[in-house]
Write a structure and sequence with these properties.
The protein is mainly alpha-helical. The longest helix has about 45 residues. The chain starts with a helix and ends with a helix.
């Protein structure tokens, strides 16, 4: 009797739960809403359906500003006052909200309408090709032109030079990441979740590119400063 009772007690006892797993489960339910669909993601998707452009503008503006701040911190690129917060951050927020979001809203909307209801392999391949050969070049051209203006370009020749210098390098990144992201979205995500998914992908890639660019610029400035110091030192020795 005692053995049977012990077995029943053990069988009926609740299994020990790892605290880390429990916390992760609660965070996941809060973000996605779980079965109740009342989490942050569900609320965000609802806003995308009811106020699509406004939601995209707020999302893109916030991510663009955060991307600039994070890239400055990763590259150790401080302003003249020694802070990571510079005048580029509100400018990037304005670009994300008033240029990038409306443009992406229009282009992706057209792309989804063209291929709506077409689920064949040929249609999916065509959608990826149109995205990479039409949508991405337009978005990257506008991005580079805006970055040139933010950096201080004031003439058409300066803007065009910036676009020509950076277009192919940016397109190469797009041609690698965009097909993978779009294929993943086609396979696993409903269309209403494409916007936040592409925002996250663009945020990660943009932060990487921005950080890499800042590090190259800082290295070039240090090299120029070092060479200038050596030149001044040689002149002083010659005068001596």
């Amino acid at each position: 009797m005692s053995v049977k009772f012990e077995k029943e007690t053990i069988r009926g006892a609740p299994l020990p739960v790892d605290r880390n797993e429990d916390v992760a489960h609660r965070i996941g339910e809060r973000l996605t809403g779980g079965k109740s669909q009342t989490g942050y993601l569900a609320a965000y998707l609802k806003q995308l359906q009811t106020n699509p452009l406004r939601t995209k503008m707020l999302t893109s503006g916030s991510l663009a500003a955060l991307q600039e701040l994070l890239a400055s911190w990763l590259a150790q690129d401080r302003s003249k006052n020694g802070h990571y917060f510079s005048s580029r951050i509100p400018k990037m927020a304005a670009y994300g909200a008033f240029i990038s979001a409306p443009l992406g809203h229009a282009l992706i909307g057209i792309l989804q309408k063209i291929f709506a209801g077409r689920t064949s392999l040929t249609a999916k391949v065509l959608q990826i090709l149109v995205s990479n050969l039409v949508v991405s070049p337009i978005q990257n051209t506008v991005y580079l032109a805006t970055m040139a203006l933010i950096a201080g370009a004031r003439t058409w020749h300066q803007v065009r030079a910036t676009i020509r210098a950076g277009f192919m390098s940016v397109m190469k990144v797009s041609w690698i990441t965009s097909p993978l992201a779009l294929a993943f979205a086609q396979k696993f995500l409903p269309e209403q979740t494409w916007v936040p998914f592409f925002n996250i992908v663009a945020f990660v890639i943009g932060t990487y590119i921005n950080t890499h660019t800042k590090k190259k610029r800082l290295a070039a400035l240090r090299k120029k400063h070092y060479e200038s110091g050596r030149r001044d030192d040689s002149y002083s020795r010659r005068d001596y």
